Here is the input.
Amino acid sequence: MRGFWAIFFKEFAHIRRSRSTLFFALAVPSLQLMIFGYAIEVTIRHIPMVVYDLDGRQESRRLIEALESAETFKVREQVQDQESFRRALTSGRAKVGLLIPADYSEKLLYGQQAAIQVLVDGSDSQVATTAQNTVVLLTSALSMQKARAFGEALQVAPARDPTGRLATIIDPRVRLLYNPNLESSHFFVPGLVAIILQLVLLFLTSFSIVRERELGTLEQIFVTPVGRGGLILGKLVPYSILALGELLLVLLIMVLVFGVSINGSIMLLIGLCSLFIVTVLGLGLLVSTLATTQVEGLQFAFLIMMPSILLSGFMFPRSEMPLPIYLATFCLPATYFIEILRGVILRGADLWDLWPQVLGLTACAAAILSFSIFRFRKQLD
Amino acid sequence: MNASPVISTSQLTRRFGTFVAVRDVNLRVERGTIFGLLGPNGSGKSTIIRMLCGLLPVSHGQATVLGEDVRLRPEAIKRRIGYMSQKFSLYSDLSSRENLEFYGRVYGLPPQRYREREEAVVAWTGIAPYIDRPAGNLSGGWKQRLALACALIHEPELVFLDEPTAGIDPVARRELWDLLFDLSHRGITLFVTTHYMDEAERCSHVGYIYLSRMVALGRPQELKNMPSVTPPGTRRWEMRAAEPLDLLARARRQPAVLDATLFGDTIHLLAEEQWTAERLQRELGSGDPTVLVRPIAPTLEDVFVTLTREQVQQGVA
Here is the structure.
């Protein structure tokens, strides 16, 4: 522990002196959270649609209105010929093409099955799936409405609701918990907090050590009686204090700007965040023992960041991943931390609910810290 | 004072993979002396210093510094030594005072003691006018003074200086050496690496390292008197001429001249004893009266040139 305060004060002097460190630690995360929090939107709405309506009567207009009313589609163009219809899709102006045949209204009137053609641009699979599902859902709702009117007229019914009105046979009562408005920001912002915290902290700590290695000041420190523990903690403690400040700032933005309220215990949240901060500091130390130059450090840090963003469950559900990759995600501290954040913030989970994740994160912290402290020698070589 | 040496090594060796950076180096440095380690770049000078400071593990052999084994008790040594590395290794964004304070804390000086020491090293190096400037803005010479002040804040008994004068101007170089002499007079042992010959001349003892081996060790005067430098039956001369290159070419063709080296507008000769000044002027200078000849003692440069040549010949043989 010898030399801890010397390194600690010096590190704070660096932080105070260097505007860029403060900027990266406090301003950049806030900006990132605001920008990405708004940008990442998975509810797909307003898919541009081109309509080639050969029928043009009341029934076909009702169909178009029904499709537009759900806000999933937005009619961009109404075309009058086959060529323009095709063009609208090939040019990418429209992702969905709706072709209503000339006899649509007649067929409905005569009680025949009326076909409509829906062309979906499949290049973006998410948009395509949403478009397909919505069209099927809306048209079956329309069909159901027609069928009900038909049944009322005939005085037959497959099922009736308690008020005696004609109803569907099964009545699913779905209630959305934790995020009733299905806002994707509620799902993404807590994950983003984890990713931003890891990004900033990993880069700051690993760079603060690698920079000294590159400049030769670390060699100078190695010749002094500073202890290994004093050196490591003196380097890491100032950054963990900075990280706690950063954490409070991003949580505040999450609550005030995105309206994501913290449903669980705030003390538990801060405690588990501190555990994650310690883990990331260990990762930073690990990078600093592997890299001898700042450029190398940058590469190692990216090597850690990429899987943390793509595989931790932040972007894509882990359950959908192939087994080997799914198993590998258990090695990422971010995996546990994102689940913890979503648990505490959205579901109001307590320690009892989260014990597997807490255990996993603790194991990661212990493994990373002991390995990097073991590797960090007070010698060159 | 005790007679045990401040530094002693035996068979000190350092390997990097298959490359041997330092091979079987034996040396002794006595208290209060200035030991100069000379050698070309990459010959292993910094590696020796780094092993003695406990920065690099020793591959083979023994080394004791201030009575402690560098392998067993490096931390005990670190408390008592100062180190100035080849590169400027202070914090450029911190002021001179903040750098001093940092090293004061690193060595655990109590506040009262630190204030005394700060005052002493600041006065001694004369950095007071620059005390609140960022260290990165100082000129080369002042940077080295600040680095020296930081290395001395805890009153070390032994200071390692790895090429302290590399890249600073001649005036600053002279002033830094004045400080080093002053330290030496105060009984502090200095271990300096350099590749300036004039600096080597100022050391009380020098070691010459070539291709990872120590090829000569002793006081400058002892080295100059080595028989291999001026073999029996030979004498050293200096010749000054308007066209030294012509003179050099003629000298090298003459079999009685064993060695000829250009030094600025003079050449240094090693010639057989029976050749007198008159004969040299007659035969090499073509009787030109403007060619001046005078007998000289070998310089350290002559010593190292001779030793290097010997090593190369032995390596080839």
Observations:
- Strands of chain A lie at 47-53, 73-79, 96-100, 117-120.
- Chain A touches chain B at residues 2-3, 5-7, 9-10, 13-14, 17-18, 215-217, 219-226, 379-381 (CB under 8 Å).
- Chain A has a mean pLDDT of 88.
- Residues 184-215 of chain A form the longest helix (32 residues).
